Amino acid sequence: MLLRKRPKRRKPKKAPELKQGIYILPNLFTTGNLFCGFFAIAAAVNYKFKMAAVAILVSCLFDILDGKVARLTNSQSRFGVEYDSLADLVAFGVAPAVVMYLWALQPFGRLGWVASFLFVACGALRLARFNVQVNSIPKKYFVGLPIPGAACMVATTVLFLYHLGESGPTKHFLLLAMTYLLGFLMVSTIPYNSFKEFNRLQRMPFRSLFLAVLVLSVVAAQPAVMLFTLMAFYLVSGPLEYLWKLTQRSSRLPEAAPQEQPVQIRPRVQQ
C-alpha cells in the first residue's frame, strides 16, 4: 500500500511586534499638563481657587508646548496623541468643572452639579470628535470651541472676579449660565479660528512687532483683566463670525424672478 504523505502544517504567522519605547521630551510636557490639571483639582478641594485657576492656565501652556516640541523634533506618535487627549480631559475637562462647582455652582444644588458634569461630558465628546476629524477638516478652524479655550475661560473668570474683590466661594447665575454655554459651544459646529496658519518665521511689517509688544505690556500690567477680556473676545468671535457669514451668504443669493401673469385670451366676438 502506498503511504500518503501528510500535509505539512503551516506555521501561524506571528503578529507584528510593537515597537518598544516612546519619545520622552514631548511626553514630559504632556505629563506637566496632566500634573497641573491634578494640582488644580487639589487646590480647588482646599478652596484655593485662585491657585487652581493659575494651574489651569499653566497646563494650557504645557499643552501648546508638547505639540510644538513634537513637531520640531519629529517625534510625533500615536501614543503621544492618545496620551495628550487623556491629559487634556483631566486638565481642561475635570479640573475646570471641579473648580467651577466648588467655587460657584454648589449652592445651586442639582443644577450646579449637572452643569459641571455637562462640561466634562461635552469636553470628552469634543476631544473624541477632534481625534476622529483631525485629518478631514481644514487646520485653519476648529469645529466648536476647543476644550483648552473653555477651560481658560473658566480660569480667567475666576481670576477676574478675584481681581474685582471676590475672596472665596461665590454664587452667580451668570456663572451657571456660562458653564452650560461653554458645554454647548464645545459640541457645536461653530468654527473657531485655530491660528495655525500664522507663520511666526515669516517676515512681517514692523507695526506687527509693535502691536505684539503693546499687547504683552498691557497684559503684564493687568493680567487678570486682560486675559479675561481676550478669552471673552475669543469666545464670542466664533458665533459672531458664523452669523456674519450666514448673512453674507443669504445676501448673495439671487432674488427670485417675478412670476409672469398668464395672458388671458379673449374669445372672438362673432359679428
Assess the beta-strand content as a share of residues. under 5%
CATH topology: Four Helix Bundle (Hemerythrin (Met), subunit A)
The strand count comes to 2
Order of helices and strands: HHHHEHHEHH
CATH arch. level architecture: Up-down Bundle
Major pleated sheet: 2 strands, antiparallel
How many helical stretches?
Answer: 8
Broad shape: globular
Number of domains: 1
Strand order of the largest sheet: 1-2
Derived structural class:
mainly alpha
| The CATH homology group name | CDP-alcohol phosphotransferase transmembrane (TM) domain
List the helices and strands and how they pair.
Blueprint: H1 24-45, H2 49-72, H3 78-105, H4 110-133, E1 141-143, H5 147-164, H6 173-187, E2 191-193, H7 206-221, H8 223-252
Helix pairs in contact: 1-2, 1-3, 2-3, 2-5, 3-4, 3-5, 4-6, 5-8, 7-8
List keywords for this structure.
271 residues; globular; mainly alpha; two-stranded antiparallel ribbon; 2 strands
